[in-house]
Write a structure and sequence with these properties.
This protein is of the alpha+beta class. The chain is 32% helix and 20% strand. The chain starts with a strand and ends with a helix. This is Integrase catalytic domain-containing protein.
């Protein structure tokens, strides 16, 4: 899971970054558009609304320690699941 940023604006909303998720089981990449200013809450919402309903929860996560993937991301996901 990684953000590709500094892309030229595209679409009606001017998206300028893409969240890339590699699903090792299905061997299929998932690309989600976003803004380079998105917070960990925005990332959690993207995962909650666009990824988890289709492929389920992650068993493992590998990232490059981007600030958007800190414990705040997983804290926000736990809020959606109403777990601690």
């Amino acid at each position: 899971m990684d953000w590709v940023t500094a892309l030229p604006p595209s679409g009606d909303k001017g998206y300028n970054s893409t969240l890339v998720i590699s699903d090792r089981y299905r061997k299929t990449p998932i690309f989600l558009t976003g803004d380079k200013e998105d917070t960990s809450m925005d990332t959690a919402l993207l995962l909650w609304n666009r990824v988890i309903p289709h492929i389920g929860l992650f068993k493992n996560t590998v990232s490059d320690r981007d600030p958007k993937f800190t414990s705040a991301l997983f804290t926000n996901l736990h809020r959606f699941f109403v777990t601690k």
